[in-house]
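Feature request disguised as a bug report, sorry. It would help if multi-protein outputs had a clear separator. Right now it looks like this:
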Amino acid sequence: MRDLLARLAQSDEAASAALRVFDYFDALDASGVGPEAYVRGAAALSSCRAGMMLQERRLTLRIAPSGERMRAERDFVPQEEWLIAPAAPASPDVVWLETPERSTFHELILERVAQGVQRWLQRMEALVPEPAQAWAMLLNDPVPGERRQQLFAALRLDSSRQYQVVAHVPAAPDGGLHAYTTVQGAQVVATIRPAPFSMEHTTGAKVRYGIGPAVEIPELLDSWERAVVVLRLARQGEALPWDKLGVLAPLFLRAKPEEVIAEPIVRAIDSENMPWLDQTITAVTQTGSVRGAADLLGLHHSTVQKRIDKVQQQFSLNLANARHVYHLWLACAAHRYATFGRPDNMAGDVRLTPRPFDHPQP
């Protein structure tokens, strides 16, 4: 065919134009470029705007003959009078030339664009995993920027919505798009949920949840990073949202466990045999009194008072001072963060929920 076109091109202008189309798109095929290059080539060769709509990938592209990208609204639909072709058999994806002309030259250009886009789609299907696998790769593998965008697209999420990442242990899936990863040696499930996340999804007395902030799809890993922080601060049976901790959670965002555990009061908590310390200080923080803490814990107030006396002696604190109480509560939270993944942290009893933001800060 090429030889025939070459001979005809010597005396036939149409054959010469067709030969240019073959040469141009053959070069693109050999280079393995993406679909935008084909659309740009179509616009340049046809001297009219060219476009492409890949519905599953939520990608609409329009290119002017000058090579400039044209604006395409979210609800953009190509006009019926334009020259339109499917990008693949039985596919909603289409390519088009924004002209009503039906010349052989234009049809040839559009056919080569459709073939190029179809080959690219086939390559991507071979390279892009299923949504759950793509999410696992984003969580666990070092992924360069361009590949990361491909994997976000492979999640097949609605780009018009925001999502939250929910991290929880034990690592048993509870629906939604999820993948497994490890945090400090502990297996964790990371689930992508549409925002706003409903607390109705948090079930199980011994499950702890860290709930990341609502973000756009490209920021899902930021939501995951924050979900991990609050997961490490949570107790068993607790669902802890990033947004509810105010200025506290960001303090731990770049904290290293070995540096946190090296703090004197955190190190002291780690060395003392006080399995009741965390829940007792939380109860005092929530109720503001020993008797209130005893009622909350279901203990006699004398038992709680003995615990308070021991804590004051061991840590040289005065727990009648609200600042000292909050200081010790924060140290307990830091200890949970630093020891996440350790057997003594992961196998503890169900704890009370700390809510220092419900009370005036000292």
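(second protein starts here, but nothing in the output says so)
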Amino acid sequence: MTESTGSTGRVLWTMRILSAIALLAAGGIHLFLVFNGVGGFLGVMFVLNAIAALVLAIGMLASTWDFTLVPETVIVESIGIVILAITTVLVLRRTPVTAGTRRQAA
């Protein structure tokens, strides 16, 4: 093993560990919200998100990327995330106030 390969492996494991921690944090926040009053359908979705975060965190630390189509799947998911982010921005942006129009009070 050369110096650069060892360094790359160390960086890869560091990123995997940080990703697993981020997943656990997001799942933990949702689980915390469920225990502090969020109920109904949203509460069920938060519980499922917490379970998925735990499973994905374990997967980040236990799996390798050598399986067939794993790199391609990550690329497709990344493109989907970008499209979702752009769609969210377009939906949630405010319409500009133009001359002669008034905003109604909410």
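Even a blank line would do. Unrelated, but nice: The radius of gyration is 21 Å.
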